[in-house]
Amino acid sequence: MSIRTTGGRGRLYDSVLDTVGDTPCIRIGRIAPAHVEVYVKFEAFNPGGSVKDRLALNIIEAAERDGRLKPGQTVVEATSGNTGIGLAMVCAAKGYPLVVTMVETFSVERRKLMRFLGAKVVLTPKAQKGFGMYTKARELAEENGWFFASQFETPDNADIHEATTGREILADFEGKRLDYWITGYGTGGTVSGVARVLRKDRPDTRIILTEPANAAIVSSGYVNTRNDAHQPTESHPSFQPHPIQGWTPDFIPWVLQEAIDNGYYDEMVPIPGPEGIAWSRRLAAEEGIFTGISGGSTFAVAMKIAETAPEGSVMLVMLPDTGERYLSTPLFEGIEEGMTDEEAAISMSTPSAQMEPG
Description:
The chain is of the alpha/beta class. It has two domains: 16-49 and 162-332, Rossmann fold (3-Layer(aba) Sandwich); 52-148, Rossmann fold (3-Layer(aba) Sandwich). Helix content is 36%, strand content 12%. It is built from ten helices and ten strands. It has helices at residues 52-66, 82-94, 108-116, 129-144, 155-172, 189-201, 254-261, 273-287, 293-306, 341-348; strands at residues 25-27, 37-42, 75-78, 98-103, 120-124, 147-148, 180-183, 206-209, 267-268, 314-319. The strands form two sheets. A six-stranded mixed β-sheet has the order 1-2-10-7-8-9, with helices on both faces. It has a four-stranded parallel β-sheet with strand order 5-4-3-6, sandwiched between helices. Helix 5 (155-172) crosses helix 6 (189-201). The chain is globular. The mean pLDDT is 96.
């Protein structure tokens, strides 16, 4: 076997923002059932480490094009983290101040990453859930004349997934079957945008949507109230706190409502958070694919679907982000900082540079 070689991308980039998108679809070689082909679309390859880089970039650029965002104007948004990180990257590259509101329970890595990228992070009480951070962002925008990014309502969200994510999937699977596409939702932009493309160009592909088992708000059948601007006016009564950060705020976003109203998914499969954590760990330890709890949860659903999928089925699973922003979450519980007894035994097997476990 000859050494691997690379040839460069064949172009130079004017900005980090030009590297958003074109994330790879990677085959799962060891932990997928033998009777199906399973691929993951690994959104950690975006420069900010998540699928939310796409919507962050389009929200800002669309607002620049139509004049909603003025030069130097402060941007404000409510986020569980990944959109905030994406917006912080975009705003840093373009020169906009950014203020993010975020519930205090989301991982500390997220707020540190946003601050490292120049954003200000305003924390909101956990008792007020996602609706609290959303209300805070809206108030700040109205009080200060800031640009409210409105990821949960803006058409710029799903539009970028139709124009990029969906088109990438068509190109990567051109001439190849694609029987299942599996995704979770936060704002709903990924499912709404990609489903527009798949329903038109790959109508035989079954779209599987998933949400946390203990926060199954879409499955409940109740749609929270909204105002004339499509903004939520209440916390969804079926919501419960869950460990799948980035998924399922405590309201059904207007962007997601498009997928619900138009039948953009064929099946809804709720998943318990601990199963997502277990599959995220397996993806890392057995495939070398380092994704967060949301990616593990989406993959867990794919493994359930695979149990009854016909021989030869091809599946594509969305992995929204990298696992590095989950270091302080249950995903890393039990992962030692010092040496384990087994590691210490390896160290003791030769005489030099020995340390005690722990």
